[in-house]
Amino acid sequence: MRLPSFKFSLIVASVLVMTCLVGGSLFLFSLGDDSLPRLIPDQTMTVFVDPKPLREFVLTDHNSNSFDLARLKENWSFLFFGFTHCPDICPSTLASLTKLREQLTKGINGSKNVQFVFISVDPKRDTAAILKQYTGYFDPSIVGVTGSELELLNLTEQLGALFEVESTPDKESYQVYHTSALFLINPQGQYVASLMPPFDISTISRRFNVLKKINAINSPH
Amino acid sequence: MKLSLPIMLGLILSFSSAQMSAAESKMNVSHAWVQEAPPSAEVLAGYMYLENKSPQAQTLLGARSADFKSVMLHQTVSKGGMAHMNHTPRIEVKPGSTLQLTPGGYHLMLMNPKKALRQGDQVEVLLEFQGGLVLPVKFKVSKERP
To answer: Which residues of B touch A120 (CB under 8 A)?
Structure first.
């Protein structure tokens, strides 16, 4: 008779301990939730706890001006790598970016300092003029950018973005392989998050607004 | 044994319409659209839902269109973190199921449009299935998935 009761009290004790632990962690969680904006990782957006400061790079924009690290400062920048001869992923991503821009900038509380950058990894075919025509067709505020392979690598290697141009010197139409992710850079020129398709506009804009609040706390001006 | 031209034409037409309705009864194509791209674009992508209403698997083997120089079946696949676009010789739709062709996966690669296509335009594509069935489908040019 004694043994079962001892067992029973053990069970009661462990249940009590568990309750305290769970209750305590719930309490901590709700405290954290109220005092600080936070983002729980999901499939769409990978946010880095420590944003990665970018090093200098120089590319050329669709107006033939240089596009360097300074152009990323003071703005939130969504970067997308692609090429204009891309029929599937690039037009659908640019169409998504157009909608995302509308969503993020609309209304009096809309973000004023957001830019969208389409970086062509196919500089042989995508000249400044072609890029301007291409991005302008979707949304004239999208900045078309490109550069030589080495210039591109200076940026892509910092982001872990991959690209590869099929080497077929005698062929007009060659394949270009590229990362389909979006890269988000904060106004301090730090790489803060990567986003994977499919791009759900309302989820991204909601998470972007949380990210802005976190950034305002971490990088006060 | 001389058949007059109208009779011959009639026979051909009735045969082709019978073939068409056979294809239609097996396959239902909806949400057919072409992603709008700048007029300079040499390649466009076409998407659709392929519903197989028959008890057998149906296989799309190819497509052609008078509005493009050529049409190919393509699939975008992610390899080593990069998007690759591969030619695919066939797209199989399992019996009683619907295959959705959407951005980032299977699509029709529409090469060299004969004229610039804008939102609201329509193009006709003939889908060629295994067994000789040919299904004409109207694709709507659109900025986003309809």
So the answer is: none
Interface of B with A (CB under 8 A): 35-45, 74, 76, 78-85, 103-104, 107, 109-110, 143-144
Q: What was the pLDDT predicted at B14?
A: 52
The pLDDT tens digits for A164-193 are 998 876 676 788 989 999 999 999 999 999
Q: At what angle do helices A89-105 and A201-218 cross, to 10 degrees?
A: 60
Chain B residues with CB-CB distance to A134 below 8 A: 38, 40-41
Smallest CA–CA separation between B74 and chain A, in Å? 10
A171 touches chain B (CB under 8 A): no
Structure tokens at B2: 């001389």
Reduced to 3 states (helix: H, G, I; strand: E, B; else coil), residue A50 is: strand
B71-98, pLDDT tens digit by residue?
Answer: 999 999 888 778 888 899 999 999 999 9
Confidence of residue A1 (pLDDT cuts 50, 70, 90): very low
> Which among A91, A173, A179 has CB closest to B81?
A179
- Amino acid making up residue A119: I
How far is the first Cα of chain B from the last one, in angstroms, to the nearest whole number? 53
CA torsion A32→A33→A38→A43, rounded to 10°? 120
CB A186 within 8 A of CB A111: no
Instruction: Tell me the CA distances in angstroms from B95 to A22, B51, B52, one per residue in order.
Output: 49, 9, 6
Of A28 and A129, more confident:
A129
ipTM: 0.72
